[in-house]
Amino acid sequence: MNLLKSRHLFCCRHSYSYLGSSGQIFYSTNNTPKAQITLQESTKSNYYSRKPIQNTQNSVESQGRHRRTREPAQNIKMPIPGLHLLEDSHAPQAPQQGSGASNETKSKEPKPQKSKANKDLKPWQVRAQAKTQRKAVLPPDEKIYPSASSGGIPEPSVAYLQQSLCAPTRLPAPRRILVVMDLNGTLLHRPQKTRPSHFVARPHAANFLKYCLSTFHVAIWSSARPENVGKMVAKLLTPDQVKQCLVIWARDRFGLSKEDYNSKVQVYKRLDTVWQDERVAIAHPAAANGGKWDQSNTVLVDDSLEKGRSEPFNILALPEFSGLANEKAEVLPQVHDYLNELSWQADISSYMRATRFALDAKYKLPSQR
């Protein structure tokens, strides 16, 4: 009975989307249906299952963010590949009375000891000490999500999902699309984070960037700090190539609070932030006639699928590049081919929903065929 009550409360209090047994997407807020979209039978197998994870109330609440541990669900299907159904990340829940799980979780979070030495510390020093102690006991796979002041965890809009469900259509000729490119983990690997100018470039990175800059509109957006992004770009691109980029953005363009900016929080690359930038907007080939960048003509290239959560069918997720020894396939040449195909599509989001990027381990360069 308690399980039924708690499940009813969860459905009433939180916004969520799920895939019904009849192959339909239901996207609702506060138990009020917003849209109902019929899926094609051929795409049902592309969806993953995720289970909503309840957050625990602990001393992290004072910092405005909450830690969650992901685990697969059994009976809940998500309509978006690679995304996870999460509860409201902005409103911490009070622990239930007599709940053993809450008490156990609280006991794992060490609190700063009220010793004589702590009495001489300033409040910010006590908080920093507590943060260090929490990191020591957290599992390595546990992430810190952004606070409400940083925008929280985004979700795709109903309008976005509806448009992505349109049938893919091929254009009679290719066009110049907008490519939002990541740096670390996508084009290069930094063995030491403290030495941003010392990195290993992914195989074919130089030729790949040269091709993209001459064929598409390119914007660079990295979650690294501005000073580190400047050093990476200066070594990866020539001065003329830097001028060809529409924008080169760093961590300061995520809208993070000061505390989240200085912490290793999960960041999200909301593409509407790029589309609304004046320098990017005027680069649209039909800007003079009202043409705009949107989900139909933009692709995000990144090694983290979660960063594209707000536009899940516009992210081309690569395996993270962690050094030459771990590179098992010709990655960037295959990305090159996929981007070329996207330039022929009338709507990139609908094509990527139906045909996700996948590496071919047996892929060979044209010169090796």
UniProtKB/TrEMBL annotation:
The keyword Cell inner membrane does not apply. It holds the Pfam family NIF. Residues 43-62, 94-104 have a biased composition (Polar residues). One of its GO terms (cellular component) is TIM23 mitochondrial import inner membrane translocase complex. Residues 105-122 have a biased composition (Basic and acidic residues). It is found in: Mitochondrion inner membrane. Keywords: Mitochondrion, Protein transport, Transit peptide, Translocation, Transport. Gene3D superfamilies: HAD superfamily/HAD-like. Residues 172-342 form the FCP1 homology domain. InterPro entries: FCP1_dom, HAD-like_sf, HAD_sf, TIM50. Residues 43-76, 90-152 are annotated as: Disordered. It comes from the Eukaryota. The keyword ATP-binding does not apply. One of its GO terms (biological process) is protein transport. It is a single-pass membrane protein. Belongs to the TIM50 family. PANTHER family: DULLARD PROTEIN PHOSPHATASE. Essential component of the TIM23 complex, a complex that mediates the translocation of transit peptide-containing proteins across the mitochondrial inner membrane. Component of the TIM23 complex. This is Mitochondrial import inner membrane translocase subunit TIM50. It comes from Emericellopsis atlantica. The lineage of its organism: Eukaryota, Fungi, Dikarya, Ascomycota, Pezizomycotina.
